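Propose amino acids for all 363 sites.
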């Protein structure tokens, strides 16, 4: 190959394909700058919102990925690559990845829902699916909490999103509730005063709403009192343990008894006579077993039932006809007897007249 041929090849490259490459490079530089500007604007917008940093980072990553994907497709279009086929290939690849990672995508979607709805934040004391602990971190796929005995439990976000969530620190104050039982021989007014004094003695107990103490129930062990007061959410357990400790101490100081579970046992010296009947059981007498006819739901069974019903109807009709004939026959016989009686009576009357005439002739 001569130098002239090499030079002609270089000239052809820059005249035919080089311009496309230069346009693609220029488009990439401009697009890169535009993407940076858009991301800065979006970051400033997110900074003014109340979204968590984790949520902001997730959305920024998604937007950045989408912008660079659009830029790459535009650059490839400038180089002569068929964009339609490329977009179809990317869509097919996305569908395949989505089917393969559907559980992970469900966790991602649930993570986005949790981050947007904001049911809890890092450091909150929560109860998730019956497990209580402090939220350590919230990620796109998982949520981690630490229990009171220092166990680290990680939940998939789909489980968290579909479970009842109790947030104990969402509100600034929280109510402490106690159920206390005292014996029946205790002065209830004194008990109320002692418990109320203990609650007022702790400065963390809120004065509004005021501490409350009242009789709630009566049971076999003693009198039950319901006690409650409000305190800051962060001081809940400290106030709770303070109340339990000092109420018990004040009960002992004031000679207030807490009843135990009691069972009363009695010994009987007398003999109990149990009444009973003198008659013995009757002897068994076997009876004939009658088997119930099972209903036949088949086609033949239907016609059998129809035939039996028809026969019963025909038999009943025949019996009614016979009864009617008997009744008519009786009525006819009755009429004949009445006519015969009339004839007999008339014959008897005629005979008496003839006898009278005969007697008169004789005379």
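Proposal:
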């Amino acid at each position: 190959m001569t130098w002239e041929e090499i030079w002609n090849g270089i000239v052809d490259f820059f005249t035919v394909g080089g311009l496309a490459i230069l346009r693609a490079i220029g488009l990439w530089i401009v697009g890169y700058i535009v993407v940076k500007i858009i991301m800065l604007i979006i970051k400033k917008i997110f900074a003014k919102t109340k979204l968590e940093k984790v949520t902001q980072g997730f959305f920024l990553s998604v937007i950045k990925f989408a912008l660079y994907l659009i830029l790459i497709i535009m650059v490839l279009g400038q180089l002569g690559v068929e964009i339609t086929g490329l977009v179809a290939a990317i869509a097919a690849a996305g569908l395949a990845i989505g089917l393969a990672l559907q559980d992970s995508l469900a966790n991602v979607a649930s993570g986005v829902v949790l981050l947007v709805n904001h049911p809890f934040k890092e450091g909150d004391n929560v109860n998730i699916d019956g497990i209580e602990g402090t939220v350590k971190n919230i990620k796109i796929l998982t949520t981690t909490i630490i229990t009171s005995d220092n166990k680290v439990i990680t939940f998939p976000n789909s489980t968290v999103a579909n479970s009842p969530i109790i947030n104990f620190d969402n509100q600034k104050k929280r109510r402490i509730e106690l159920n206390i039982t005292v014996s029946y021989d205790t002065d209830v007014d004194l008990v109320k005063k002692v418990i109320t004094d203990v609650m007022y003695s702790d400065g963390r107990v809120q004065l509004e709403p005021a501490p409350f103490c009242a009789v709630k129930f009566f049971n076999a062990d003693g009198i039950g009192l319901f006690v409650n007061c409000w305190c800051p959410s962060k001081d809940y357990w400290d106030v709770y343990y303070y109340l339990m400790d000092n109420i018990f101490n004040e009960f002992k100081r004031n000679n207030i008894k807490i009843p135990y579970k009691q069972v009363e046992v009695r010994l009987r010296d007398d003999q109990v006579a149990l009444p009973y009947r003198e008659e013995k059981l009757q002897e068994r007498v076997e009876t004939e077993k009658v088997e119930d006819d099972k209903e036949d739901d088949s086609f033949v069974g239907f016609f059998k039932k129809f035939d039996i019903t028809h026969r019963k109807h025909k038999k009943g009709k025949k019996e009614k006809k016979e009864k009617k004939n008997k009744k008519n026959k009786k009525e006819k016989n009755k009429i004949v007897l009445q006519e015969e009686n009339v004839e007999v009576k008339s014959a008897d009357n005629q005979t008496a007249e003839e006898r009278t005439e005969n007697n008169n002739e004789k005379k």
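DSSP finds eight helices and eight strands in the chain. The radius of gyration is 53 Å.
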